Amino acid sequence: MSTDLLTVDGLSKSYPLPGGGRQLAADAVTFTVRPGGSTGIVGESGSGKTTVARMLVGLVRQDSGTVTVEGRPRAARTPRGRTARLARAREIQMVFQDPYLSLDPRLTSTQCLRTALHLHGRDESLVAGLLDQVGLGSREAGARPRELSGGQRQRLAIARALAVDPQVLVLDEAVAALDVSIQAQILQLLGEIRRDTGVALVFVSHDLAVVQHITDEVLVMRRGKVLEQGPTQQVLTTPKSPYTKRLLSSVPRKTWNPEASTS
């Protein structure tokens, strides 16, 4: 029996083009995530990484391939029954790049979490613990999204996802819109949450430094295809794919050579 928590096998998706034909967004993407593990999906804009993330959660229906959690297949179609939908939601939750768009502007942080807990039949007294877990205090508890900073909104979005008690947390460019110092705080928070709860992470990003900091395994995508995958440190320190090498050479550092990124 497999010890993997999340198994993605041959996931593919294409979209019709206006002039005919189809644009391949994901081509036979395959990877696994162990319980409590952290896997990164990295690539430039248009690489297909967000499409993969959305297929994992069920926001996009795959053309082919399977997603299983603990050996249980996740159907391409969202189940009709309320009980089945809630059970599916408890398997995988997603945190988006812009939490403001996914938070109800009418609800305070406390109301937001209480609603999520109630929906999934969990004790609403867990609100205080969730807020504390993501570093939000009493002031933020009574604030609405517009009254929170970008970092605080992202903390709330993470807390709402955790309220469901998911097995896997998918984060799509979750720190891309934040200042560098706030990025570091959120990454540290995610590391602590992973350690304390055992939730597995799938971290989607264009930022190699972020992926190197937060993940154990990584996939490098380009134009829908996985060009390289393996242990993060190995892939990002001794890459085999010329594309991965170009991505790494474009990251500013003390010895950065701008000409190398275009060669």
Topology, pairings included?
Blueprint: E1 6-16, E2 22-33, E3 38-42, H1 49-57, E4 64-69, E5 72-73, H2 82-91, E6 92-95, H3 109-119, H4 127-133, H5 138-141, H6 150-163, E7 168-172, H7 180-197, E8 200-205, H8 208-214, E9 217-222, E10 225-231, H9 232-237, H10 242-249
Parallel strand pairs: 3-8, 3-9, 6-7, 7-8
Antiparallel strand pairs: 1-2, 1-4, 4-5, 9-10
Q: Beta-sheet strand percentage?
A: 15-25%
What's the mean pLDDT score?
Answer: 89
Element pattern in H and E:
EEEHEEHEHHHHEHEHEEHH
Q: Number of helix segments? A: 10
CA radius of gyration: 19 Å
Overall domain count: 1
CATH architecture: 3-Layer(aba) Sandwich
Q: Outline of this structure?
A:
This protein has about 260 residues and is α/β, with parallel strands linked by helices. The chain has a single domain, classed as 3-Layer(aba) Sandwich (Rossmann fold).
Description:
The protein has 263 residues and is an alpha/beta fold. It has a single domain (6-227), classed as P-loop containing nucleotide triphosphate hydrolases (Rossmann fold, 3-Layer(aba) Sandwich), CATH 3.40.50.300. It has helices at 49-57, 82-91, 109-119, 127-133, 138-141, 150-163, 180-197, 208-214, 232-237, 242-249, and strands at 6-16, 22-33, 38-42, 64-69, 72-73, 92-95, 168-172, 200-205, 217-222, 225-231. The strands form two sheets. A six-stranded mixed sheet has the order 6-7-8-3-9-10, sandwiched between helices. A four-stranded antiparallel sheet has the order 2-1-4-5, with helices on one face. The radius of gyration is 19 Å and the shape is globular.
